UniProtKB/TrEMBL annotation:
The name this protein goes by in its record: protein phosphatase methylesterase-1
Catalytic activity: [phosphatase 2A protein]-C-terminal L-leucine methyl ester + H2O = [phosphatase 2A protein]-C-terminal L-leucine + methanol + H(+)
Organism of provenance: Schizaphis graminum (Green bug aphid)
Stretch forming the signal peptide: none
Record carries keyword ATP-binding: no
Root EC class: hydrolase
Gene that encodes it: PPME1
Similarity field: Belongs to the AB hydrolase superfamily.
C-alpha cells in the first residue's frame, strides 16, 4: 500500500510541478483503499478537497480475504477468445452491463502467444446474451457469498486444462501476502480525513461498525445503489455519474450546466 500511495503522489507532483489544482480522489475497491491512504497520508501537503470511495469497506473486505484464494481458483485459467472472456464476466455476475464488460474485461487478459493485452485486439464482437462457455463450467457464485474448497472438492477439470488463447494479465494469487495491508485500518483513516467524503455501496450490509457510527454522525455522504454488483460503476455508470456530478456541484467543486438535474443527497 505504501508503494501504491507513493506512486500516485509522485505522479501528481510530476504532473503539476508548479501549482497543483484542487483534487477530488476517487477509487473503486482496492483503488478506493489507495485513495483513502493517499488522502490520509498527504492531505496536509496536497490540495485534496474531496474523496469518493466505491464499494470497499474494511470489515467486509477483511472478511472476504479468507475465501479470496478459493474465488481466484474458481475462475477459468484461460479463454478461447475475447468474446468467451466477456461472456464469462457477464455470465457469472461479475459485470451486469454488457457495454462495460466490453471495456473492462479485455484489459484484464492477455494473448498467451504475443503477450499483448486483449484491448489491443478487441474488435467489438456482437454478444447477444451471456453464454457460459466450456471455460466456465465451475459453480457460479460471487465473492461475497463464496464457499470454501471443502464444499466443492478439487478445482474443476476445465480449470486444469492447458492454456487457451488468452489468460489473466496478473496472477493475483501471488499478491496474497499484501492483502491484509491493503484494508487494515481503512475505516478509521476514511473517517479521519477532513475533505468532503462520499461512499458508494452496492449493499448496505457492507457497512462495518466504525462506518455505521460515522455515518450516523454525519461524517460523510453515503449512497447505496440497487441491482448492481461489486463493479458498481460498471453495472450502472449513468447512476454513478449522476451521483458524482451532484456531489461535485453540491460541494461547489464544479459548476452545473443549464440542463443539470439535481438529486437529493443520500444518507
Amino acid at each position: 500500500m505504501i508503494t501504491f500511495t507513493n506512486d500516485v503522489i509522485s505522479l501528481l507532483r510530476k504532473s503539476y510541478p508548479e501549482k497543483m489544482p484542487s483534487i477530488v480522489l476517487m477509487g473503486h475497491s482496492l483503488g478506493g483503499a489507495i485513495a483513502v491512504n493517499i488522502a490520509s497520508t498527504a492531505e496536509s501537503d496536497l490540495p485534496i478537497i474531496g474523496l469518493v470511495v466505491i464499494d470497499v469497506v474494511e470489515g467486509s473486505a477483511m472478511e472476504s480475504l479468507a475465501s479470496m484464494q478459493s474465488f481466484l481458483r474458481s475462475r477459468p485459467k484461460s479463454f478461447k477468445s475475447l468474446t468467451d472472456a466477456i461472456s464469462w464476466g457477464m455470465g457469472n455476475g461479475h459485470i451486469k452491463n454488457e457495454e462495460s464488460a466490453r471495456v473492462s474485461i479485455p484489459g484484464q487478459i492477455k494473448n498467451v502467444a504475443t503477450g499483448k493485452l486483449g484491448t489491443d485486439e478487441f474488435e467489438e464482437p456482437m454478444i447477444d446474451t451471456p453464454v457460459l462457455t466450456e471455460a466456465i463450467s465451475e459453480p457460479q457464485y460471487s465473492i461475497d457469498s463464496i464457499r470454501e474448497d471443502e464444499e466443492f472438492g478439487a478445482p474443476s477439470i476445465s480449470n486444469q486444462k492447458s492454456l487457451g488463447n488468452y489468460t489473466w494479465r496478473i496472477d493475483l494469487c501471488k499478491t496474497e501476502k499484501h492483502w491484509p495491508g491493503w484494508f487494515q485500518g481503512l475505516s478509521k483513516k476514511f473517517l479521519s480525513i477532513h475533505a468532503q467524503k462520499l461512499l458508494l455501496l452496492a449493499n448496505i450490509d457492507r457497512m462495518d461498525k466504525d462506518l455505521t457510527v460515522g455515518q450516523m454522525q454525519g461524517k460523510f455522504e453515503m449512497q447505496v445503489l440497487t441491482r448492481v454488483g461489486h463493479a458498481v460503476q460498471e453495472d450502472d455508470p449513468e447512476k454513478v455519474a449522476s451521483i458524482l456530478s451532484n456531489f461535485l456541484v453540491r460541494n461547489k467543486f464544479a459548476n452545473p450546466t443549464g440542463d443539470f438535474v439535481r438529486i437529493l443527497p443520500g444518507c
